Amino acid sequence: QVQLVESGGGLVQAGGSLRLSCAASGSIFSRYVMGWFRQAPGKEREFAAGINWSGSDTYYADSVKGRFTISRDNVKNTVYLQMNSLKPEDTAVYYCAARNLISNTVRLTRTSEYRYWGQGTQVTVSS
Hints:
The protein is an all-beta fold. The chain is 0% helix and 50% strand. It has no helices and 11 strands. The chain has strands at residues 3-7, 10-13, 18-25, 32-39, 46-51, 58-60, 68-73, 78-83, 92-100, 116-117, 121-126. Strands 2, 4, 5, 6, 9, 10 and 11 form a 7-stranded mixed β-sheet that branches. It has a 4-stranded antiparallel β-sheet with strand order 1-3-8-7, with no helix packed on it. It is globular, with a radius of gyration of 13 Å.
C-alpha cells in the first residue's frame, strides 16, 4: 500500500507556471506507475499525464501536451507535474494516483486503472 500527498497548487495568472509534487510513502515507489488527474467543478475526473515505473515512458492528454511535463525521482519517492503556459481551463483539483505495475509498454489513463489516490491540490488560473 502507498500513501500519496500532493502539494504545490495555488493561484496563478494565465500564461504562468506551477510545479506540483506528489510524495509517496509506505511502499516501494519504483514499482508504481504514477499518474496525474484533474477534476474541474461539475466535471468528471480526467487524465492529464502518466509515467511508468522507471520514468522512461511519459504520456499526456492532448489538452496538456506540450505544456505539462511529468517526471519522477525514485530516490525521493516523488512525482512531479511541471505546468507551463497555464490557461483558465486548467483550473481544477489535481490528483496524484498510483498503480503497482512494472511495465515499459502499458499506459494507464483511466481512473479505474489506478488503485491509490492523494487528497488533491487546487490549481486556479485567472484570466
